[in-house]
């Protein structure tokens, strides 16, 4: 998201109920070697990258899979970008691969060259389609995927897609939310529509089949049905989650979700706050270290 979009999201967030503050640990463990060290060379099973074409909504959306070194099968992370996706977290994808996990990055319908029309609800459908793709036995064999250890990880709007998708998929091993934006969670009304439209002024060149006005109407129409609501929290109660927040005005979204999950008896949610911007620009190493440590705790 651009600065303008973040300001609009933060403006909408002012109407959200306050949630308890979460702070970073006072003394983090050492940075995992995978953040800064290449894996051992395996000539028989080297790491590689393959292009993916994932069937969804009558088209094939584009993606790539970063395959980890070694014979496998490998646990696999699916990485979901935000709106429109200028920050794609590719350094995180590479670090995840060095840690022995496959990592898939893809583009929703109507974004960054994927065919079709972009829409918020379409993004959720695309995420589910990708999960079906990686569970297909032919793809499991081709890409050495351990389907018992599938994790969704999303940034910004991708964090929202991650939460809503993971809440309906009991087969996932976990979910990671990075500066998640609850796209439908603040009771947006037609009165704020002009501000939402204005906030997307510089966001549209990589999106097809939509407009600022259509997206604004979709955000308004989706609230609260597709928000971080009680049903989403209930669906996440038993699932391991890493929720990372930053100083972008959106922390109450994810922290509020964490509080709901914990209120439902969930004990497997870890919340970590860093004093950085929405894109985590100044602490990439810390971001990679935190995510990899959490992933290592799942295996």
Q: Provide the structure class.
A: alpha/beta
What's the helical proportion of residues?
25-40%
CATH superfamily: Alpha/Beta hydrolase fold, catalytic domain
Largest sheet: 8 strands, mixed
Q: Helix segment count?
A: 10
Q: What's the number of structural domains?
A: 1
How would you describe this structure to a colleague?
The protein is 35% helix and 19% strand. With 299 residues, it is of the alpha/beta class. It has one domain (3-296): 3-Layer(aba) Sandwich (Rossmann fold). Strand 5, helix 5 and strand 6 form a beta-alpha-beta unit. The radius of gyration is 18 Å and the shape is globular. Mean pLDDT is 91; it is low at 10-26.
Question: Which short descriptors sum up this protein?
Answer:
299 residues, Rossmann fold, 35% helix, 19% strand, alpha/beta
Summarize the structure.
This protein is of the alpha/beta class. The chain has helices at 3-13, 90-98, 120-135, 137-143, 157-166, 193-199, 212-222, 230-236, 251-263, 284-296, and strands at 48-56, 59-67, 74-80, 102-106, 145-155, 174-178, 241-245, 269-273.
How do the helices and strands line up, and which of them pair or pack?
Layout: H1 3-13, E1 48-56, E2 59-67, E3 74-80, H2 90-98, E4 102-106, H3 120-135, H4 137-143, E5 145-155, H5 157-166, E6 174-178, H6 193-199, H7 212-222, H8 230-236, E7 241-245, H9 251-263, E8 269-273, H10 284-296
Parallel strand pairs: 3-4, 3-5, 5-6, 6-7, 7-8
Antiparallel strand pairs: 1-2, 2-4
